[in-house]
Amino acid sequence: MLTKKAKYGLKAMVYLAGFEPGRTALVTDIAAANQIPKKFLDAILGELRNAGFVHSKKGKGGGYTLARSPQEIRVGNVIRVLDGPLAPIQCASRTVYRRCDDCENEARCTVRLLMLEARDAIANVLDNRTLAQMRALSESDPAGALLGELERN
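^ thats the sequence. predicted structure below, dont judge the formating
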């Protein structure tokens, strides 16, 4: 399940994707526009800055801006930074794999096999969507835009 941290981080990133490159937004404005507690958003944006997704600028004209074009930022990567792996269990993870202590035969473990399938389905969606595509969903008929995008793939 997506945590509030990742949800708020995605909301903030999509908000920033609406700005022209280099234009900054204040944390208070991002928080108010997205109903996010400012203190929590400060911490989230700090993590996103450390991961190279946003730049911050202090002083007059300061604030946050995307570090790259919204067309280059994959949703799955943002979620991994804030929430960790996409896999529901560690033995199905590609990035932090760890064998389960109670598993006798990993190759035949039905729980693992299904969770691998779930992980792949989630990654297929999130790793093939960008912030620009997320933003476009809110600027049009969301159901129609998503359906059209899925039909093209």
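The mean pLDDT is 90.
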